[in-house]
């Protein structure tokens, strides 16, 4: 292949002739194209940001995300556990209130008015909101705020019931120590308190108690709660039981066939303490009953004629509650 170059210089034309191999020319053009393409790729790569995410990087990101989810889940579970503990505490206090309320109803004798084994009766006809209220958005109260308010109300009720229980117990103790009634059932007064004709000597003598005639072996019962301070034999009295009560009172039961209690025993009202007999200085089966106040024998008549126990304002207050 021949190449002819013609140049025009200073008005004169010059012609140069070259002899070129065509294969070399094609190879040169091809190499030039390859170099241009390579430079173009390098330029595009340089000006375009390329982000390559490796598998290790992707695994690390997923692991961190999973750890965050587990942390949030653990925090939520901890909060839920705290709520459960709080609710369990409230439930336990409610159970204690129910038990205390049941005990108070038993002490006050108002079981028919308050049944703590039943749910509180609530209800009513369902009514829709007014038209103006329908446009208002209902937002439920804060959960923990309501729980705290409930806990405060329970604390208040616990204190009130504790005070009421203390009052009722004290009133019950006063009633138990309230001396009243006959010491033996199905009996009659065979000898009064005061001056009388002695049944053995026939002379006028003072009588410190009242004699109740009753069948031999009948049960003699305490007329009030107290502590047995003596149980044994005394001259003239035979088998004797002496019980101390509050406010300096004592009751004495004499001429017993046998005693059923011993010194130091706690006795309740109407508890059997002895059996009717004729031990000691007696003409027949009966119980000699004395009431002593501050070591001085007093007439039992005003005590045995007490039919009703002392009025209990605490019970009335419990009913009003």
What's the level 1 CATH class of the largest domain?
Mainly Beta
CATH topology category name of the largest domain:
Glucose Permease (Domain IIA)
Number of helices: 5
Number of strands: 14
Q: Give me the secondary-structure category.
A: alpha+beta
CATH architecture classification of the largest domain = Distorted Sandwich
Order of H and E elements = EEHHHEEEEEEEEEEEEHH
Tertiary shape: rod-shaped
Which stretches of 5+ consecutive residues score pLDDT under 50?
A: 308-321
Estimate what percentage of residues fall within beta strands: 15-25%
Radius of gyration: 54 Å
CATH homologous superfamily assignment of the largest domain: Glucose Permease (Domain IIA)
**Biggest sheet descriptor:** 10 strands, antiparallel
Count structural domains.
Answer: 3
Mean pLDDT: 76
How far from one another are the termini? Answer: 128 Å
Helix content: 25-40%
What oligomeric state do the depicted chains represent?
A: single chain
Kindly describe this structure.
The structure is a single chain. This protein has 321 residues and is α+β, with helices and mostly antiparallel strands. The protein has 3 domains: 2-47; 59-115 and 142-178 and 312-321; 188-304, Glucose Permease (Domain IIA). It is 39% helix and 25% strand. It has 5 helices and 14 strands. It has helices at residues 22-47, 55-108, 143-176, 301-304, 313-320; strands at residues 2-9, 12-19, 188-191, 194-197, 204-207, 210-213, 219-221, 226-234, 238-244, 249-259, 266-267, 272-276, 286-293, 296-298. The strands form 3 sheets. Strands 3, 6, 7, 8, 9, 10, 11, 12, 13 and 14 form a 10-stranded antiparallel beta sheet that branches. A hairpin with a 3-residue loop joins strand 8 and strand 9 (238-244). Helix 2 (55-108) packs parallel to helix 3 (143-176) and helix 2 packs across helix 5 (313-320). The longest helix is centred in the first third of the chain and has 54 residues, at 55-108. The radius of gyration is 54 Å and the shape is rod-shaped.
């Amino acid at each position: 292949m021949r190449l002819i170059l013609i140049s025009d210089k200073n008005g004169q034309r010059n012609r140069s002739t070259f002899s070129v191999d065509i294969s070399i020319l094609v190879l040169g053009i091809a190499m030039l194209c390859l170099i241009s393409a390579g430079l173009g790729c390098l330029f595009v790569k340089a000006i375009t940001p390329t982000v390559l995410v490796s598998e290790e990087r992707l695994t690390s990101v997923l692991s961190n995300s999973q750890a965050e989810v587990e942390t949030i889940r653990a925090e939520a579970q901890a909060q839920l556990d705290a709520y459960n503990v709080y609710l369990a505490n409230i439930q336990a206090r409610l159970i204690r209130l129910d038990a205390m309320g049941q005990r108070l109803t038993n002490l006050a004798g108002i079981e028919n008015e308050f049944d703590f084994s039943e749910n509180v009766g609530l209800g009513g006809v369902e009514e829709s909101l007014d038209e103006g209220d329908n446009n208002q958005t209902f937002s439920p109260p804060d959960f923990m705020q309501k729980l705290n308010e409930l806990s405060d109300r329970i604390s208040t009720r616990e204190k009130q019931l504790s005070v009421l229980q203390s009052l009722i117990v004290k009133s019950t103790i006063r009633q138990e120590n309230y001396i009243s009634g006959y010491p033996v059932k199905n009996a009659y007064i065979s000898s009064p308190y005061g001056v009388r004709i002695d049944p053995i000597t026939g002379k006028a003598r003072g009588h410190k108690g009242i004699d109740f005639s009753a069948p031999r072996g009948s049960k003699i019962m305490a007329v009030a709660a107290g502590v047995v301070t003596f149980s044994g034999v005394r001259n003239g009295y035979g088998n004797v039981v002496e019980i101390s009560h509050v406010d300096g009172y004592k009751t004495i039961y004499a001429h017993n066939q046998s005693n059923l209690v011993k010194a130091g025993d706690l006795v309740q009202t109407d508890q059997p303490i002895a059996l009717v007999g004729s031990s000691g200085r007696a003409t027949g089966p009966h119980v000699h009953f004395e009431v002593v106040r501050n070591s001085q024998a007093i007439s039992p008549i005003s005590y045995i004629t007490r039919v009703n126990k002392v009025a209990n304002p605490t019970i009335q207050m419990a009913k009003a509650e």
